[in-house]
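Quick one: structure tokens for this chain, please?
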Amino acid sequence: MAYFENIGKINYEGARSTNPYAFKFYNPEEKIGGKTMEEMLRFGVAYWHTFTEDLSDPFGVGTAIRPWDKFKGMDLAKARVEAAFEFFEKLGVPYFCFHDIDIAPEGDTLRESNQNLDTIVAMIKDYMKDSKTKLLWNTANNFTNPRFVHGAASSSSADVFAYAAAKVKKQLEIGKELGGENYVFWGGREGYETLLNTDMKLEMDNLGRFFHMAVDYAKEIGFDAQFLIEPKPKEPTSHQYDFDVASGYAFLQHYDLQDHFKFNIEANHATLAGHTFEHELHYARVNNMLGSVDANQGHPLLGWDTDEFPADLYSTTLAMYEILKNGGLGKGGLNFDAKVRRGSFEPEDLFHAHIAGMDSFAVGLKIAQKLLDDNVLEGIVDNRYSSYQQGIGKDIVEGKTDFHKLEDHAYGLTTIAQPSGRLEQIRATINQYLLTAYAGE
């Protein structure tokens, strides 16, 4: 059965195309910096937002019109698989991602849930034989069901801890079966509402134990995927243990997990933490912890996780600058953890949204590569810190000085020259690159 029968293959037609079902800037075969766009960007479709999201919000029921929603239960799960692979094929994406309950409904027992998963995983595996689309990552949803009201690995209930572990065990097995390149942990409820009833140390210790058991089991079954932690600062809990990359990195170091994990960084989560997207990418990169990306954006006037499709070219350019400096994303990719707006409820809107996001990152890739080729930002930074390349600055960097020598140096200073940061000029330069990139200049 065709679910998008009025839509054909999405092809690249160039910047002047007026076809809403064509890429304007994303040309999967075009080489940038020695790799094709497809190889560099590694786009993925989020199963949850694309095939299960009904576009409900706290103030209204769902508006999404989806042809597969006429089915129920396991029939609905099977229809979604059919729709998903039709979508992947027409969009031409190399990857997809899912949570366990995205692909199969939960049963009355864990055993029944796993049986449902087995049926759908077998169907997905069969579809993957004839598809170029691979599994970027999968994960266990340990936050939606009421059993996780007090958390999962950080729950006050040992039974819930065990249940969460059993779900992750099953997903690790599925990840191996489907050839997943990564496995993500998003601790949606790994945090607390108030310290008045919370043993924080026990909860964090248990979370560390949980991750170690996951690492051990992956080794036991020979699943060599990259493990990823996805930070989020708030919502749903008041205080998340994985607030941002910095706190997550400290956690991994404290529990001796830093060699087993990297970060899956989401743009909207970065802004909720009070950071820019590029800040989180940069912090992960300079610590060799950048693994993968959930590509979306938040709304500047709203203080929650709106998960909008990325369209801010300034943001995608700076993001791709960090990713290029990282040498790419390795096993990771750019997964569109993004949903269409509530008023964009027709099935065709799913294509429009992904085309916009893919084009936006394609532009970002080309501009970022040009900035690197021209040594624009690197030259600015090197010049700003040039005092550390000679004299007392070089001694500081090389560890050849101490407070006594620094005091002597300071006594000899009569003036201190401070160059301007020229932020406005830098921003104008980036704008120039953005605006001239497709003007034939």
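The mean pLDDT is 96.
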